[in-house]
Design brief:
alpha+beta, D-amino Acid Aminotransferase, Chain A, domain 1, D-amino Acid Aminotransferase, Chain A, domain 2, 2 domains, binds 4'-deoxy-4'-aminopyridoxal-5'-phosphate
């Protein structure tokens, strides 16, 4: 169940019972101002009794990149972290679609607001249930936010820096209050950057077009995978370049993508109907292919998924 906590967390180099992973309240203060995190998903394949974790090495490499930019030292190798995650999933018997969230934060930073508090980092890995919404017919309506996406001269947009997320949160709150589901943010150049917490792509005149990685976007692992699938499997031409908001109004299809968003069709932008107002054919084809990859039933699954077999305990 989504509100149930896992039995174990991985914290400071070992598995710890959930109840025992506590910090003193005064440590909360500024400890996360420079924290970075990852969002990783595992998909449950009931037939194979196996959890398929999507692009785990790529997510861990991005965690290392994020830590580097905010000057947090990483005391583990990526192989050690990969093993820690596999062991944690095994210990928690995560036989459902699962979200895995490593969080690195500066330890002993209480009261140190602006000093180089990052001399030491603590690393926490949490898991929780997160069901898929792929191919469920779920769609969203977007508005262009009045908030501007953070730029690389202000904060590092390409990494998963916790403080970045205030930007997307403000944009989401505004969008939802105004009756939309999701916000699209423009960058300081007035070009489309991304959605709050996901990347954005559109289909126009048969091409898949998405803002390039210098448009102020997170270096998204899902976006990268979908561009590969579009090019190599669906034979669609791909353009990574600055994107105008009015191009989106005229697009045949729009969708957001990301670990949490998976592929989410967007059927309106600023009350302009996109295409015929329903999930478009390219989006649907991408969703089908992506669904198969994530659940271990596509030739690409082998390269992109880390398998954690979890046979059900047999009770006599
Ligand atoms: N942009 C932002 C701001 C995000 O938080 C996410 C989700 N991690 C994405 C884009 C999509 O990135 P990914 O595909 O790596 O999850």
């Amino acid at each position: 169940m989504a509100d149930q906590h896992p039995k174990y967390l991985w914290w400071r180099g070992e598995q710890v019972r959930w109840e025992d992973a506590t910090v003193h309240v005064t440590d909360l203060a500024w400890s996360t101002v420079g924290a970075v995190f990852e969002g990783i998903r595992g998909y449950w394949n009931e037939d194979q009794e196996t959890l398929f974790i999507f692009r785990l090495p790529e997510h861990l490499a991005r965690l290392a990149d994020s830590m580097k930019v905010v000057r947090l030292p990483l005391a583990y190798s990526l192989d050690e972290l990969q093993s820690a995650i596999i062991d944690l999933i095994t210990a928690n018997e995560s036989r459902e679609d699962t979200y895995i969230r490593p969080l690195a934060y500066s330890s002993r930073s209480s009261g140190k607001r602006l000093s180089a508090a990052a001399a030491e980092a603590d690393l926490l890995i949490n898991t929780n249930v997160m069901p898929t919404h792929l191919l469920t017919g779920y769609t969203q309506k977007a508005r262009i936010s009045s908030w501007t996406r953070i730029s690389d001269t202000v904060m590092p947009p390409r990494i998963k820096n916790i403080s970045n997320y205030r930007n997307g949160q403000l944009a989401t709150m505004e969008a939802v209050q105004d009756g939309y589901d999701v916000a699209f943010l423009l960058n300081p150049q007035g070009k489309v950057a991304e959605a709050s917490g996901a990347c954005v792509a559109m289909i126009r005149r048969g091409k898949l077009i998405t803002p390039d990685v210098t448009s102020g976007i997170l270096e998204s692992i899902t976006r990268d995978a979908l561009l590969t699938i579009a090019r190599e499997d669906l034979g669609i031409e791909v353009e990574e370049r600055p994107v105008d908001r009015t191009e989106m109004y005229l697009a045949d299809e729009v969708f957001t993508c990301g670990t949490a968003a998976e592929i989410t069709p967007v059927v309106e932008v600023d009350r302009y109907q996109i295409g015929d107002g329903e999930t478009g054919p390219v989006t649907k084809a991408l969703e089908q292919k992506f669904q198969a990859i994530l659940h271990g039933t596509d030739p690409r699954s082998e390269a992109w998924c880390t398998l954690v077999p979890l046979r059900a305990a047999v009770h006599a």
